[in-house]
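Quick one before lunch.
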Amino acid sequence: MEVIFRNVSYSYDGINNAVDNISVFLDSNLIHGIIGPIGSGKSTMLELMNGIMKPTSGKVLIGKYDLSNEDGSFDFNKFRYDVGLVYQFPEKQFFCNTVGEEVAFAEKIFKTKNASIRKKVIDILKIVGLDESYISRNPFSLNGGEKRRVAIASVLISNPKVLILDEPTIGLDDKSKKRLMKLLKNLKVRYNKTIVIVTHDVDMLYEIVDNIVVLDKGKIISEGNKVNVFSNVEYLNKHNTPIPNIVRFEKKIYDKYGLDMGYIPNMNALIRKIADISKGGGPNER
Ligand code: ADP
Ligand code: MG
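Model of the adenosine-5'-diphosphate complex:
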C-alpha cells in the first residue's frame, strides 16, 4: 500500500503552515525515512497519516483510503487494520498487565475471540524476536528495546500493510537498536510491509531505508533514493538537515583525495572497505 500526499498543508493556528503544500509518493514495500530539523513538520506529517488529523488543504491517500475525506466514507476501523502506528513512547500505548494480552488486544477488537489467538500472539512475538515466555510478563517491566518490540507486535497482529514509526530508536541501547533495524528490514523483505519512519537518527536510517524525504520549515527540500538525497551535503547543510556520519566521512575523503567510496551502510562495512582499499583493491576514482 502506498502513501500519497497531494498538495497537503496543515495549520495549527490558522496562520502558519506546519506542513506547507507537500506532495510526495511513498511507494509500496519500501522503507521511507522522514528527516529534518526540529520544527520542520515531521511529526505533523506523521500525524496526517494516522487517520484522525485531517489536512487543512490537499489530500492524504493511503492505498484505498482517502484520509482527507470528511463525507463519512472513510472507514476508520478498517483503516486501523491496514495501517499501524507505533508511537515514540511505547509505554504510552500499553494498558494491559501482560504482554500476551497487550499483543492480543487488537486481534480481539477486530475479530471475534477464538482459540487461535494465543498461537497468533506467539507467532507475532517470534517475528519481533521475543519468545513465548514473554506472554505472561508485565509489559511495563521490560527494557526499552523489548517494550518497542511489544509495541510493534501489538500493531503487527492485525497484519497492517503499512507500518508507521515515530522515533523508533530513541532510548534504545546499541544492541536493541541493531535488532530493531534487522526486524524492520525483515518486515519489508519477508512480509512486504511499507514502512515509514520519522527520526532524527540518520545513521540508522542511512543503513535501512530505501528513500528519504527531507523537510525544512514545512516544505520538502529533497526527496528520493537515499544515496541521491545525501549526495548534496552542502545543500542539505544549508537547510540544517542532519547528515549521517558515514556520509560526512565519505565527503571528507572525496574532497581531500577525490575518492568516491560508493554506498557504505554502516561502520563495519566502512572498515571492510578501508581494508580493501589499503590492500590495493581501490575505490572508484572520479
Ligand atoms: P518536527 O516533528 O519536525 O519537530 P512538528 O511537526 O512537531 O515538527 O512541528 C512543525 C511546526 O508546527 C512547528 O513550528 C511547531 O511549533 C508547530 N506545532 C507542532 N505541533 C503544534 C501544536 N500542537 N500546536 C501548535 N503548533 C504546533
Ligand atoms: Mg516531532
